[in-house]
Every structure is written in structure tokens, then in C-alpha cells.
Amino acid sequence: MQFRIKGITAALVASGVLLGSNLAHASDSDEIEKLRALVQELDQKIRVLDRKGEIAEEDAAAKKKETPVVKASKDGFGFESADGQNSIKFRAVLQTDYRYYDQGANDIRERTDGRAGNIGTDGFHNADDTYILRRARPIIEGTLFGKYDYRFTPDFGSGTALVQDAYVDGKFAPGFKVRVGKFKPDLGLERLQSAADTKFVERSYVTNDLLPNRDIGIALHGDILDDKLNYSIGYYNGVADGSSSSGGVGFLGDKDVGGRIFATPFKGDDSALAGLGFGIAATYGDAQGERNLNFTDTTTADNTRQGLPAAYLTDGQQVFFRYGTGTVADGSRFRIAPQANYYYGPFGLIAEYAQVEQEVSLAGGGSPAGGGAATNSTIFTGTNKKLTHDAWEVAASYLLTGEDASFKGVKPKRDFDLNKGGWGAWELVARYSEINLDSDTFKNRNGQYAVASSGTTANSAYADLSQSAKAAQTWAAGVNWYLNQNVKFQLNYEETSFDGGAITGASHTSPGGAVINVKADGSNIKDREDERAIFARVQLTY
Amino acid sequence: MKKSFLSLTALLAALALASPILASAADVTLLNVSYDPTRELYQDYNAAFAKYWKAKTGDNVTVKASHGGSGKQARAIIDGLDADVATLALAYDVDQLSEKGKLIPKDWQKRLPNNSSPYTSTIVFLVRKGNPKHIKDWDDVIKPGVSVITPNPKTSGGARWNYLAAYAYALKKYGNDDAKAREFVGKLYKNVPVLDSGARGSTTTFVERGIGDVLLAWENEAFLAQKELGPDKVDIVVPSLSILAEPPVTVVDKVVDKRKTRAVAEAYVQYLYSEEGQEIAAKNYYRPTLASVAQKYEKNFPKINLITIDDVFGGWQKAQKTHFADGGVFDQIYQK
Questions:
Q1: Is the Cβ–Cβ distance between A284 and A333 less than 8 Å?
Q2: Is A353 buried (19+), middle (13-18) or exposed (0-12) by CB count in 10 A?
């Protein structure tokens, strides 16, 4: 096209020259008219070409407005409609951990007396050093019609495949949003922080052990008062402490009602308090668990059916507490969790407390372990108790390289690049946390220490203090290296001490040895050995 | 007791009388999605309507306008553009709002007088001053060497009127011989160097870019161009036969119900039929339908032998399917 325009222009110029020269010499006016007509014709052709170019540009601009936008950046990949009303985005979180345990760290998970293995002097297996694919989550999220956000997060990490998030969030107004599906209820502060943004490899007792993880339900939420107060109130299936809904049907009594308000009153101010946030969350529900099942015939207790947490874990992800298999949720469950965070320059602080009151009972019957004829699950009379557990944590962080700390991830001022001399962002972190379980958990209905219920007698305890600790205190320190906003390396050291959880004298469960049970006064109970662990993580997220 | 009742009644009556004063004026926004050459018409009309509505209800109404090729505008509404009112170039495009968008009832055209067309227009020729190519009628625009400017009938309502006017002329000339009519219109489009997407674009091509010998134009667009350029730049030529163009208007029911603007939107289209609305149309070179106003502006509009789309082409649905649908007559003759 450009060539044609130039050619025509040249012809025009030539015609002009010819015209000029001919004007001087031509005596034939017809010839002048012909030349004039030729010039006009060529002039029209140029104008037409120019106009077609304009129209093509206008069409291209119009089409551009209708053409979906393809996005590919360090924030993720996706597509968006030209008007921005509809989008899909592909993100991911991949975490590969290495866990090292010093001698003494141990795990009561899935261990039985008769099972062969390297059982230590306390009757526990030593925790294994291991690599673990902690999280492997492709994330699909986006918006439809400009107001319906959606998110789908499968997780293939930790040796299982499950759906972490699957929800729709209708954003009808900033202060009026409705979320439906499986998601993190607005409850725990540390839980609401993305797994990719946590300052430690693992979250604290507050989050891991007491407050719910994901649940299925509906929540009304929003930001009001000039975006300085976030509220949420939801109606959920209800899950046991630290647990997630499987995504299946809910069956353990009434639904849970949960709510949270979180204020950031100085948000946007030019003051040292601009990064202060505080709030409180609570849940209330009713749960009736059952000992084992008449229709699944499992060989081990089904803790989700019990309505109680499968276990409480240490920071080192080892089980330090477990209810007896005959202990079931039997009544109200109330959780409350005051919480706060503070960010000022490179400094960050998060503090959170949680308390759970849970009514429990001992149950018998149900499907016997190993199969066979089933009987109805029955509650032993006089065994109903309200147990109160609590946990708290304080964690601080400081970015040595001067980036601003926040609830979200860190963007290094200079990415790690050997050629350009950047070293990314470096952050020091420290945390103290502890969990305290109700002493009554380990006593029977007569107020005496006893073995944990297996569903055969009403005089059992709800958990066995010779195997499960009643308190754990952990301090942890670490360093985070953000190579860039997508790649992070974390190194944590944690040390945990316990109250109870082991028995004096001969091993409680040594293979072939005599079983020694907890004495009624608890005088043969001792503290479990301290747990010392080093966790390392390489994380990729976008 | 009786005294109390009377007092209460008096108080209620006083409150009722005071309520219009106490009530605060509402701010309402309407979107009128229209075709290309109506910019000036609705600029004037929107201001007049806002004044009328304020006086009538006390509410402030702001009417936003969107202009473009009529077909394109209809598609935009179907695709979700929240038009309270559609004022398009031809009934077929409004039909699409019913058929494809389910936004208005099927019998929308019966809701307002004159098939919901408050004003009409027709197609005339705009030529260079002095008419150097001696263009007098449709026969002249198909002559070799005559450069004709008209928009694309696929996207422009005005272009479809142009096309059908030429086609109707050819049918009459050749005794309804369709093959000859196609050949006639084919020759016309061979003379078209640029197809703009809308009528306003074609006016730009002809007037501002100086391309072509003749612009097939809405009558109102031709008058407007002459007014803006001055009578020494262009002439208007009235062909011996043209077509009665009836641009229709409608409220978009789904949108006005959603936005709760039905009352004001209905008043907006109805007021086009009022004396003031008709005056504004006439001043913007649209032929008024109200007899009194039509009579007043009679001299402004030349008398033309006008055919109707119903009489010659069996209505818009049939004309669209035959001539402008993909693979239709226009596609066949334009590809040749």
C-alpha cells in the first residue's frame, strides 16, 4: 500500500511538472483539460487510499476494544474480556519442604501398641526426617459479569488430592458481598493470610489446632465505614478444630454460625498507627459425633464422624494430642478469637488468641474395629463434659532489606540477580506460641486420670495423658529470603516443650512389654521430651 | 374526640400539600442509543426534554447519547449496553432487540403513533457545488467515472435506505425486473470507492476528505452538511424517486425496569411527538409527522415521490433477509 501511495504521488508530481511545462507551451486546451482531469483522478485515488487507511485504523481501534486481553506476568496468567467484566486467571502455589527432627521429637499418630517399629523409650516413634510436597495448588480464579468473583483451588500436596477452595463471591457493593461454597471462613487472622504469605513454614497452634480451616456455607461480608471496618457473618456446616470440610454432606448436628469484625481505624492515615488492625471472631454450633460407624466399618476411629479434631499438632507437625476413639462431640461448641496485627515500615507483628469450649461425651457401640456386626452408637451416661482449650501466639518479623512489611507478600526492592548485584529481600522472624488443654480432658467422670476411651467403658478419660500432652509451648525463629515476589526460601528452627504426654518407668507401649497405664492420681506421668525441628521450604507462587 | 379527629385531618392535609415541597428532586440519567446522524437532533431535544421534565416533575434528568451505525448500535444493546431508549435508523434493527435480545415486546411498534416513528426522512444526493458531474437522478450515479459515497449496508441503517431507494428506482425503471435491478445497483456499488461503517463517516469522507462526486445521504444529513459548509460548497439534488425512511424509537423495557426509569423513558419518547419535539425535529431537518408542524415547515422539505419499504420490499424483515443477510443480494453484487 505504501508503495502504491508513493507511486501515485510520484505520478502526481510528474503530472504537475508536465502540467507546468505544458502550460507554457501547450496551445491545445483539450490537453490541459485532460491533464487536469488526470491530476484530479490521481488526487482522488490518494484521498481514497488515505481514507481507507483511516477507516482501517478506526476499525482496528474498535476491534481492539472488543478483543479479549491476554495477560501474562509475574502476577499470573489469564484472559480478560475487552470491557474487563469477565476474566479468568491461572495462578499457583508450590511448596517443597524439608523437615529435620532432632532426637526426641516424636509422633503418636496412627501408632498402636502391637505395631512393630522403632519405638523409643517413651513408647513413641521417632519423627522421620523427610521431604514433603507441602502444597501443590493450581488456582483458577476470575470474575464474571464484573461482579461475581470465583475461585477454584485443588491441592495435590501432602500426599492427598482435595479441593481447598470452590466458591462464588457476589460483589454487589463494597459493603455487601455474598460468598457461597467452600472457603476459609473469616475467623482466624493467621488463617486468612495466604499460605504463600505466611512468615513461618507452618502456622501456629491457634490456627492449626483450634480454629476452623475451610468450611462449606454462605457468608455475608464487606468493607464499611470508608473501608476501615471489615465484617463477616456466615452460616456453615461446621467443622472440628483445625479441620476442613471434606466437601461432602454435613451430619454432625446443627450448623455453625460464625462472624468476625476487624477494624483498621487508622488505615490511610499518615501516622505510625496506619498499619494497626484488630478484631474479634467467634463461632457457635452444636455437634453430635458418633463412635465409629454402622455403615462404613472402618478399622480405625473416624475422627470426622466423632466431631472432634483428628489430632492436635505441634509446630513441627507431629501429633502431641489425640482424643480416645470412644470420645465424641456431644453438645455445643463455642470458639472466640481476638486478634490483631501491626505493620510499620519493615516491622510486622501478629498476635492472636483462641479459645474453644466443646461439649464431649464417651460413646460405645457402633461398628467394631475389624468389621463384624454393628450396633447403634450410644452415649455413656454421666460422661458429658464441657472442655475448654485455648492457644495464643505472638509473631514478629523484620525486613532487613528495608521493604515495607504487610499482611500480604513481600516485593523485594531488588530481585536476586547475580549479574545485577541484587540480593532480594531478607527477613528475620520470631514467634512464641502455646496451647493449653483442659485438665478434665485426661480424667474420667470420677475426676481420676484414666486411659483414653475406646468405647468399651464409661470410666475412661477423653484422652490419655500418658500419650497426649496437655500443653505445649513453642518458640520459633527463622529467616525468609525473597528472591523475588514469586520465589521464596524459608528456614525455621522451632523448639517445643510439653506438659505431660509420657509415662515414667518402663515404656508404656514397648513391643512385647507390659503395658503401664496412667495412675488415677497421675503420679506416673512425666513430660514428653522437647521437640526440636528445622524446617526449610522453597516456594514458588504466581 | 371530634375535635381531635379534625385536627388530625387538618394536619394530614397540610402535610399532603407540603409534601411536593418537602420532597427532594431526584436525579435521573437516561441513555439514548441512537444512529449516526442524530447527534444534533438529540442534543437539542435532550435539553428541551430535561427542561420539560423538570417543570413537570421537579426531577433533574440527564440524557446521555450514544451514536453509531444503527446495526452496530442494536448489537451493542443486545450485548448488554444499558440503553433506556433506542432511537435507531430502521425498524429491523429495533426488531432485533426483541428477537435476539428479548429486551422489548414483539409488538413494540404499536406502542407509539406512526409505527413508533415520530419523524421521517428520505434519501437525497449531496453533490459538489455546481454539480460538475451533472447528477440529476439515480441513472447518473451508476455512470462510469462517477464516484459515489455511501456507507456499508451491513452496519449502517442509512446505507440500507440508500440501497433500497436505488433498488426501488431500478425496479420501477425496469418494470420490476429483479435481475436488471440487481445489475443497476451492482453498477452503483462499483462506483463506491470507500465503504464507511456509518452515515456520519460517509459524510466525513465526502465533505471533509473531499472524496467522491455524490454522497447518498439522509435528507437531514444533507441539509446539515449544506448548512455547516455553506451553500457555496455543496448542492442538494432530489432524485425523481426515493424511499420514505421511518426511524423508530422505543423504550428498552428490560433496561428501564431494571434501572427503574420507565416513567421518564416513556415520557422521553412520547415527548418526541409533542409540538416542541416535532419543532426540534423539523429544525434539524427531519420531516415532522404532526400535521401542524409539518405544515409550518412544508417549504423546507422538497416534494419527492416516496415509495415505502412495505409496498416495494414487503417490509423490513423480508428486505433484510433478501438483501442484507449474509449471502444476500448485497453480498452477491458487492463481490462481483
A1: yes
A2: middle
Q: What is the pLDDT of residues A413-464, one digit of tens each?
A: 999 999 998 999 999 999 999 999 999 999 999 999 998 877 778 899 999 9
Q: How far apart are CA B79 and CA B82, in angstroms?
A: 9
Class of residue B165 by CB neighbours under 10 A (exposed 0-12, middle 13-18, buried 19+): buried
* ipTM score for this prediction: 0.72
- For residue A258, report the phi and psi dihedrals to the nearest 5 degrees: -130, 150
Angstrom distance (rounded) from CA B219 to CA B123: 5
Spatial distance between the Cα atoms of A153 and A140, rounded to a whole number of angstroms: 6
B68 in Cβ contact with B89 (< 8 Å): no
Give CB contacts under 8 A, 24+ apart, made by B232-235.
B232/B129, B233/B128, B233/B129, B233/B207, B234/B126, B234/B127, B234/B128, B234/B129, B234/B207, B235/B126, B235/B127, B235/B128, B235/B129, B235/B130, B235/B131
What span, in angstroms and rounded, lies between the C-alpha atoms of A136 and B172? 75
- Residue A427 in contact with residue A395, Cβ under 8 Å? no
What letter would DSSP give residue B110? G
Which chain B residue shows the shortest CA-CA distance from A46?
Answer: B211
Q: Which residue in B197, B201, B211 is closest to A48 by CB distance?
A: B211
DSSP state, residue A449: B
pLDDT digits (tens, 9 = 90+) for A15-47: 554 445 544 555 578 888 889 888 988 998 899
The distance of B208 to chain A (nearest Cα, Å) reads: 10
Q: Which three cell numbers stand for residue A469?
A: 500432652
Interface residues of B toward A, Cβ cutoff 8 Å, are: 147, 193-194, 196-197, 201, 205, 209-212
β-bridge partners, B70: none
